[in-house]
Specification:
The complex is a heterodimer. By secondary structure, chain A is mainly β. Chain A has no helices and eleven strands. In chain A, strand 9 and strand 10 form a beta hairpin. The radius of gyration of chain A is 13 Å and the shape is globular. Chain B is built from no helices and eleven strands. In chain B, the strands form two sheets. In chain B, strands 2, 4, 5, 6, 9, 10 and 11 form a seven-stranded mixed sheet that branches. Classes of the chains: A mainly beta, B mainly beta. Chains A and B meet through strand 4, strand 5 and strand 9 of A and strand 5, strand 9 and strand 10 of B.
């Protein structure tokens, strides 16, 4: 079973700050997913990456396969970024069953 | 058009009742999933189907029975509801069963068992 740990659990920051959320996992993987859960409850997939870095707007996700670690960065954070960010990895290499981290609750204060 | 839809959005019921949650996706995906999110917001896989065939069946009580009449639909029937079944249930879909596929989530069904 792949254990997934996220840090921090909660993060409060001022608007405009650079945000970093971390995810570590215990077993080799084929890909890692970053999800966003809005305050209203809806879940959106942000990134799926297996190496290097991906960027979408103000969001950047990086992964280091050797160190079994991924980070999600938000530049110029905005109150609308307030949400829970969840990383997830397949339990076994190539298996579709995702194991989820416990999430990081981000609050951006205007 | 909603990509992955679930009905109902809210479900309040008494212990011991039987209830169903329906899920439909119009993305043409082959794989569908049911997830449970508990009160601590932790997400966990329950089932997945690929083209109407059961692929993943986690250690879920037999009271939970998924049914996939076609690859666009995956319904969840729950018998003899218990207090501990209160949670948010999310349906999701992806193109294939690989862990490298982006998953698209429904809006969730908030189940409260009294």
């Amino acid at each position: 079973k792949n254990e997934v740990e996220q840090s921090p659990q909660n993060l409060t920051a001022q608007e405009g700050e650079f945000i970093t959320i971390n995810c570590s996992y215990s077993v080799g993987i084929s890909a890692l997913h970053w999800l966003q859960q809005h305050p209203g409850g809806g879940i959106v997939s942000l990134f799926m990456l297996s190496s290097g870095k991906k960027k979408h707007g103000r969001l950047i996700a990086t992964i280091n396969i050797q160190e079994k670690h991924s980070s999600l960065h938000i530049t110029a954070s905005h109150p609308r970024d307030s949400a829970v960010y969840i990383c997830a990895v397949p339990s076994n290499f190539g298996n579709e069953k995702l194991t989820f981290g416990t999430g990081t609750r981000l609050t951006i204060i205007p | 058009d909603t990509a992955v839809s679930q009905t109902p959005k809210y479900l309040v019921t008494q212990m011991g009742n039987d209830k169903s949650i329906k899920c439909e996706q119009n993305l043409g995906h082959d794989t569908m999933y049911w997830y449970k999110q508990d009160s601590k917001k932790f997400l966990k896989i329950m089932f997945s189907y690929n083209n109407k065939e059961l692929i993943i069946n986690e250690t879920v009580p037999n009271r939970f029975s998924p049914k996939s009449p076609d690859k666009a639909h995956l319904n969840l029937h729950i018998n003899s509801l218990e207090l501990g079944d209160s949670a948010v249930y999310f349906c999701a879909s992806s193109q294939q069963t690989s862990g490298q596929e982006t998953q698209y989530f429904g809006p969730g069904t908030r189940l409260l068992v009294l």
